[in-house]
Amino acid sequence: MHPELSKRLISRFRWIDPDPTGPHLVSDGSGWWRDPDILRRIGPALAAPYRTAAPTVVLAPEVAGLLLGPLVAVALGAGFVPAHKDGRAGSDPRRIAGPTTWADTAPDHRGRVLRLGVRDDRLGPGDRVLLVDDWVSTGAQLRALYELIAARGAEPVGAAAVVADCPPELARELRLTALLDAAQLDN
Ligand SMILES: O=P(O)(O)OC[C@H]1O[C@H](OP(=O)(O)OP(=O)(O)O)[C@H](O)[C@@H]1O
């Protein structure tokens, strides 16, 4: 769909090894944000499959979603709402001002169980919601976000991510479109 952008995303991506004694490499997408061409094109590319669905708002989780979500929202002429992640080391749940709806995640790709929260006055009936994230693995965050949308009486239109690191059946269930499959980042 976006062959030039896909090539560029692959070339700017790195796996890094933060702990040589640890079992996992960690994805490093910081090169994406450093590239002006990617920064300009990634929002419209993620938004493209959802233009006719006319979302009113993009909902995206911390941390990368706080950058990607607004890029997609601008491309769609929609608003943006952050989903707060609680349970992160050092997080302070008191920082969220006002009543907030929470949803627990299943264990995610790191085995963590988190809570995702959205402020009640930022999402409600009449909203058509597009979910956005940089990476989808187990789908734990997206499932919790769909729960939040339902709890707020809003309507989901689907989900857009840079990388789908999940089986196609799960992507279909999550109504997920992605710019890359994780297998393209193997080298
Ligand atoms: O499909 P899942 O298993 O739910 O995983 C997807 C999540 O993993 C990444 O966040 P991560 O927690 O690694 O980093 P962050 O909290 O710093 O954004 C990514 O940004 C997604 O939010």
TrEMBL record:
Pathway: Purine metabolism. Its main location: cytoplasm. InterPro entries: Adenine_PRTase, PRTase-like, PRTase_dom. It comes from the Bacteria. It is found in: Cytoplasm. Residues 40-164 form the Phosphoribosyltransferase domain. Coiled coil: none annotated. SUPFAM superfamilies: PRTase-like. One of its GO terms (molecular function) is glycosyltransferase activity. Gene3D superfamilies: 3.40.50.2020. Pfam families: Pribosyltran. Keywords: Cytoplasm, Glycosyltransferase, Purine salvage, Transferase. Transmembrane segments: none annotated. Belongs to the purine/pyrimidine phosphoribosyltransferase family. Homodimer. This is Phosphoribosyltransferase family protein. It comes from Micromonospora zhanjiangensis.
